[in-house]
Amino acid sequence: MHRPPVLHVAALLLFTGFSLTEAVEIKVHDNNNKTCIYAILSVNFTVVYEGNGTMENTTFTLPNSLSSNGSVCGDNKSAPLLKMNFGPGHSLSLNFSHSAGIFRGDVLTFTYNTSDTNLFPGAKNTSVKQVAVDSLMEAAPLNTVYTCRSAKAIASKEVIMVFYDVGLQALVENGTISKNESICKADMSTTMSPLTTWTASTMTPTKPPPPPIPSVGNYTLKNGSETCLLANMGLQLNLTYVEDNQTRLINIDSNSTASGYCGDQDATLVLEDMKTTIIFHFIVEQSKFFLKEVKANISLVVNGSTISLYINNSSLKYWQTSIGSSYMCHKEQRLRVTDQMVINTFNVWIQPFELKSGTFSRAEECSLDDDSILIPIIVGAALAVLIVIVVIAYVIGRRKSYAGYQTL
């Protein structure tokens, strides 16, 4: 009698930054109770949905309570499929293919049910939706575990998925998970020398010199052939890692890959370089747009080990600007996201809504750039100094006059 694959799930607490995040370990078994697919991964989901008159967004992680219905071990004639079902109608699945001694992930499919009131409170149109995208998994030799600790984001129109601390092996031989790793390209760049080195265990750490002011990146999103979001800015992350109480400055690569989506009431810009994925979420309220949420997954080397930091704040209100205009600020700004991360921004020019002819609209400049506000301050200060001088002169004059009428 054929028995469907069995899924075993173990919640593993991994240090992924300033808080603990659960990674899910998965073993799919074949008819002989041998492991045929192995996976360990952490996934953060952000889904935009229509609420009661406004666009809402919900954020959740891949839970450890999963079922394996629909998973397929695969063989020489059929392709392996890893399917993880959770909650009322949600699932994440990955199709594998294999040839010439290698395996790879092909299609990643996320299915979600907006009738789930826990994850989608107040959803207007309740239905089951599906997003299918190309997998981010690189080809790996058979009988190895593909590993990628670095964060990687996949963005579609309504869904953003951020993967990190990933380990995958399809077509496991004889039920034995391989001890050999096939490391992703992103991790190869994060295994270099640590940011802080010690010359001796009893000496003070030698800090590397601070990075230069970051170069300005030019980022563009399109809906079809039409440009829907423009962003020019230099970005620098100011991180405080609590485990070693060290502050680190990290410049975002100006050649970072840009992705995301544009909507009428909300837009998301995702920037990825080899070590960092950072997500900017903009919304519209009362004819103004602003930056409401920032998420970041950052790979750091601490004491020779690579760690993943996850930062999130969905209660921000930066860069507030009238709809139909762009926001501009040439001066350096410090955007506090959390106690552990501040974003230093340089030469910002951004417009996530209502672009015309694919170019920036009239810019509303930040107060730091507006030199006109300095004029009343300078005039007021000069008047104050003048008044003080007059008062001092008057007092001195009065004292001299009084001394002249004293009896000799």
Word description of this protein:
- The chain has 408 residues and is mainly beta.
- It is built from 2 helices and 26 strands.
- It has helices at residues 185-188, 374-404; strands at residues 6-15, 20-29, 35-50, 55-61, 81-86, 90-99, 102-113, 128-134, 140-141, 145-148, 152-155, 159-170, 181-183, 217-223, 226-241, 246-251, 257-262, 266-272, 276-285, 288-302, 305-313, 318-322, 326-329, 333-336, 341-351, 363-365.
- Strands 1, 2, 3, 4, 10, 11, 12 and 13 form an 8-stranded mixed β-sheet that branches. Strands 14, 15, 16, 23, 24, 25 and 26 form a 7-stranded mixed β-sheet that branches.
- The longest helix has 31 residues, at 374-404.
- It is elongated, with a radius of gyration of 28 Å.
- It starts with 5 loop residues before the first strand and ends with a helix.
Brief account:
The chain is elongated. The model is unreliable at 6-21 and 190-206 (pLDDT under 50).
Key traits:
408 residues; mainly beta; 2 helices
Terminus-to-terminus distance: 129 Å
Cα radius of gyration in angstroms: 28 Å
Most strands sheet: 8 strands, mixed
Instruction: Tally the helices.
Output: 2
Helix and strand string, N-terminal first? EEEEEEEEEEEEEHEEEEEEEEEEEEEH
- Percent of residues in β-strands: over 45%
Uncertain regions: pLDDT < 50 for 5+ in a row? 6-21, 190-206
Helix content percent band: under 10%
Overall body shape: elongated
Q: Say how many strands there are.
A: 26
Helix-strand category: mainly beta
Mean pLDDT: 83
